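Data deposition worksheet. Section B asks for the primary sequence of the deposited chain exactly as it was used as input, without tags or linkers unless they were present during the calculation. Section C holds the resulting structure in token form. Section D is free text for depositor observations; keep each observation to a single sentence. Incomplete worksheets are returned to the depositor.
Section A, Depositor: J.P.
Section B:
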Amino acid sequence: MKLYGKEYDRRTLARMAGDVAAAGGVRSVVLADGSERGVRTLEFRTAAGLAFDVLVDRAMDIGPARYRGVGFGWESATGYRNPGLHEYADENGLSWLRSFSGLVVTAGLDHTLFTADVDAANYRYPHRSTVWNGLHGRVANIPARLSGYGERWDGDRCVLWAEGEVRQAAIFGEHLRLVRRIEADLDGTEIRLTDTVRNAGFDRTPHMYLYHINIGWPLLDEGARFVAPIRETLWASDSDTEQGASNLVFDGPRPGFVEQVYEHDLLPDEHGRVRAGLVNDRLGLTFEVEYNSAEFPAFFQWMHLREGAYAVGFEPSTNAVAGEPAAREAGTLTFLEPGEERAYHTALRILET
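Section C:
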């Protein structure tokens, strides 16, 4: 490993410091104030300057993220609200927006995108013929059962890691389990997410999945650029033409800006991987997401340049922007059979450019 400009193996690092924490590591803390009170958090820190928080009680999503003191994970006014305060059906299903903050907010496990009332005959419960789903589903406000965390040596390479399980279950309803593993090299600037979603129940169950990956100031700033291998833009919200803001070179914050959303068809490389990035030339930094196009066949760009809530989002998704009712009608909605699982492999990295 290259730490602070010198090469170190496990032994030479041990000679310099009695604990890996001198270079980096994972620390468990509990947030203790305001609406965040009681949220278990794992603080990751690498010797290369990458620091990010894993919110154990928020589905192990990623909250604040910084590189050498420069923030790139979006931090909204909601903070990282304790999931005990969440009311799923409040505000006609838009209550998800009251806890919407951080670098990664997961949507799913059986529903993503806008609210929908859908057929529930697969659960064979005559008193509930349909299931009503709020914006982006339930998973982001479910605490994980933490399996473990810490530093793991693989030869002379040290990997920081955490793993946990999130259960989304109901009697006469779905029983889906998400196992999430997060890794970062001690000398690295990359976050690796490996997610496995399994139908742990005995009924055929719908499955939709989406990452809301949110970049905020100061990495997002006037003149920052969106860079991706766009083969075709399949859909854009009406606000795109009404506001005239470019989705390739970003403006600064605007009063009253209405979100602009795009669905892009992105070209994968020869290995089926897709990369999309946000470049800040002034800071000399790029944030990049890399994912598997077979796992996430759709990609959305969310642009919210409103003052006070200034953010841009990258959203790899299992389904198109039209949402669950359209996917059911088109026959493209995934159903997991009992015991069946799907895996997702995604990397988030910060690069000096």
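Section D:
The chain has a mean pLDDT of 97.
The chain has three helices and 25 strands.
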